[in-house]
């Protein structure tokens, strides 16, 4: 090597690095824009793109999904998945299976599975039939077996229709049982789930503890709570790995398209 030449190498600290793209703010990025982002991620050495879609993806039997908001069709997701694979990028579905479903639950006929405005009602057969439809769409259209189930910010869990029909029950118990049932559906469909940490762990921050279902990852994010770090580090019972999320969310502003 000549004296004025040099080499520089970078090594990533994580096996997976990438972007979570917010596609649930009343519009979705065009397919071409997502392809541009995929190429950009590949140039930056990243290998994951998560599509955060609350009700902005096509689901059989759910005509109101994405209504007046925009959504990706099954064919569009398959196209993006194949394109991402060409560049070594894993396209991962990030959906919601508990809260953040206001735009899906506001329509006629959804009252049977609605706890409160944006939260599904746990422990109802119809709720898990609905969730299985969501996960079946994921299974059909993405080549990865990984799926993010959401389950964050369900602060009113069990305090709406659930409370009227069943009486009061601790939120930590409800979410544990709900998570177990949703993960069972994932096992049936051969999907590997992950959830957000904020509800599952902070709900038990006063001393209660419930382990996650086997083979379920927990993605760490939260608002600023006054909770001792020992909640995360001091409880030796936590046998499932906490995934420190290095993704960053981008809310789409330009180059949008709608499905009206």
Tell me the layout of helices and strands.
Blueprint: E1 18-22, E2 28-29, H1 31-43, E3 48-52, H2 74-86, E4 90-94, H3 102-105, E5 114-116, E6 119-120, H4 125-141, E7 146-148, H5 161-166, H6 171-188, E8 192-196, H7 198-202, E9 217-220, H8 230-233, E10 242-244, E11 249-251, E12 256-257
Parallel strand pairs: 1-3, 1-11, 3-4, 7-8, 8-9, 9-10
Antiparallel strand pairs: 2-12, 5-6
Keywords:
4-stranded parallel β-sheet; 260 residues; disordered C terminus; 8 helices; globular; TIM Barrel
Care to give the gist of this entry?
This protein is an alpha/beta fold and 260 residues long.
Task: Note down, in words, how this protein is organized.
By secondary structure, this protein is α/β, with parallel strands linked by helices. It has a single domain, classed as Glycosidases (TIM Barrel, Alpha-Beta Barrel). The chain is built from eight helices and twelve strands. Helix 1 runs parallel beside helix 2 and helix 4 crosses helix 6. The radius of gyration is 20 Å and the shape is globular. 39% of the residues are buried. The C terminus is likely disordered.
């Amino acid at each position: 090597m000549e004296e004025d030449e040099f080499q520089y190498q970078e090594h990533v600290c994580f096996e997976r690095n990438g972007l979570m793209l917010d596609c649930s703010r009343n519009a979705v990025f065009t397919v071409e824009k997502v392809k541009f982002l995929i190429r950009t991620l590949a140039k930056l050495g990243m290998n994951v793109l998560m599509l955060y879609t609350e009700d902005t993806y096509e689901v059989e039997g759910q005509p109101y999904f994405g209504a007046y908001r925009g959504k990706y069709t099954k064919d569009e997701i398959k196209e993006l998945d194949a394109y991402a694979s060409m560049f070594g990028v894993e396209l991962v579905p990030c959906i919601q299976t508990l809260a953040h479903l206001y735009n899906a639950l506001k329509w006629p006929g959804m009252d049977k599975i609605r706890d409160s405005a944006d939260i599904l009602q746990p422990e109802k057969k119809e709720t898990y039939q609905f969730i299985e439809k969501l996960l079946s769409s994921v299974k059909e259209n993405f080549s990865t077996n990984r799926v993010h189930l959401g389950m964050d910010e369900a602060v009113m869990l069990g305090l709406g229709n659930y409370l009227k029909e069943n009486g009061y029950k601790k939120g930590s118990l409800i979410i544990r049982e709900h998570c177990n049932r949703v993960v069972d559906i994932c096992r049936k469909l051969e999907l590997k789930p992950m959830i957000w940490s904020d509800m599952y762990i902070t709900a038990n921050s006063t001393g209660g503890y419930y382990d996650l279902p086997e083979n379920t990852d927990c993605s760490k994010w939260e608002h600023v709570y006054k909770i001792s770090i020992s909640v995360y580090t001091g409880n030796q019972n936590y046998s499932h790995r906490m995934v420190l999320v290095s993704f960053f969310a981008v809310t789409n502003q330009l180059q949008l398209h709608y499905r009206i």
